[in-house]
Design goal:
Shape: globular
Low-confidence stretches: none
Helix content: under 10%
Mean pLDDT: 91
Oligomer: single chain
Strand content: over 45%
Number of strands: 19
Order of helices and strands: EEEEEEEEEEEEEEEEEEE
Strand order of the largest sheet: 2-3-4-11-6-9
Length: 205
Amino acid sequence: MPYSIEVVRSTEQYTTNWSGGTTTQIAIYPRQADYGQRTFIWRLSSAKVELEHSTFTSLPGISRILMVLDGQIRLVHVGHHHAELKSFEQDSFSGDWCTQSFGKVRDFNLMMASNCKGRLTALTVEAKVSIQSFGDIYSERHQHASVFYCVDSNIQCVFNEKYIYKLQAGDALILHSEQSSDKLNLKLSNGQSELAHVIQVDLQY
């Protein structure tokens, strides 16, 4: 199988404190990378901003995308731009910038080193409905990965019509490949009686 598949359960993730609240690391690549030493190519996390006003940690050389999962926030990138974000809206910015936030939220964060490109897509799966998802391929990149993070409810993922994985809230499915010609075909099914939300992350490096 050209893709390697990993399921990261919410119980396997660890939470630490930061100046504005708490952050939970969902996944980091390579696995042995150290966030504190900034040796990662990409990192995914979910944070709770518990202060009405906070300043983000400086991350020189790292590009960031932040998506709000719950609540509303105003981001002020001093000397650059500002953004008003509601649930499932996102903003891209540099970790070099001085970024201040206003508002208490739960968010989803993608951090990338300079040799990595990525994007976030919010998927909504209606009750008792299945949807197809196809990852983007950048031909100039040798490796790529797609991550599916289950925000709420329960989701069944069927990869290439063969491999079945069940995700609960906080779980993540990681599909990684070193062959840029591979095509991703994933069906997400919501068997619950309420909406389910999934964040799709596409990465190339």
